[in-house]
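With this grant's support, we have settled on a layout for protein records. A representative record follows, to show the layout.
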Amino acid sequence: MISWFSYGLTDIPQFSHRVIDTTKTLTESQKNALEASLIDFEKPRSDGAQIAVLMIAKLDNETVEHYANRVFNQWGIGKKGQDNGILLLIVKDDKQMRIEVGYGLEGLVTDLVASRIIREQLAPQFKQGNFNNGISNAIAALAVALTTSHQTTESLQSLSQTQIYNKQQADLGQIPTNQDFFPYFFLLIILSPLISIAISWFTAKRFAKRVLGSDSLNSVFSLLIYYLLTKDRRFETNKSSRWNNDYNDRDRSSNNDSDRFRGGGGGRSGGGGASGSW
């Protein structure tokens, strides 16, 4: 009996970048631009969703659906448990393509949606040899669909929590909310230093009047208060400047670190998506 493994299956490249082109059809600048668009898609999200692109020359003894599913699950596109990854596979010489969708996104990127992206965004561009444009258009369409759904879900969840909290506070009735207490707390923070300065001023003034006399009193205390205030301001300014410099350095380092690709997050696919040709 002949099995799939009798002839060997198509090799799966290492998942080292978000965009992998073993055919060298895309230029380095094109791959970098596509990679940047995928980073922009991932950054604002907190759910670990991923879109990956793979272009190969041809398939060996397996269908595009079978290969796409193997690639997806071996790479682990998306987050484990949420299975929120998408693979865009292009088989250039065979003129086949597939959008493989993770379990968790099948309700958002349905087979119908994936098929429409193939027909409207990929196939027309590929027929003209514009692989970069087709891939870019498909990424944009997928990102818009997933981002819109993600933001809508987060907004609904946030609204739901707010409504629940307000209902609980209304039921309690006598317990003030944080919003009710905050203005008074903030006012107390502002007035406390002023009250302390005023008390210190009148206490010191009474003492100094006995020692220095009233003529030199105002000038002495004016200089003293000015020195103390400007000393604190200079200290805070220097501290703030140092903190901002440290923060900017950490922020730049964090951004560079977040852009570094770490592979898949363990997502799975059960074969959802759509295939097509050009």
User: Anything to note?
Assistant: The chain has a mean pLDDT of 76. DSSP finds six helices and five strands in the chain. Residues 217-259 form the longest helix (43 residues).
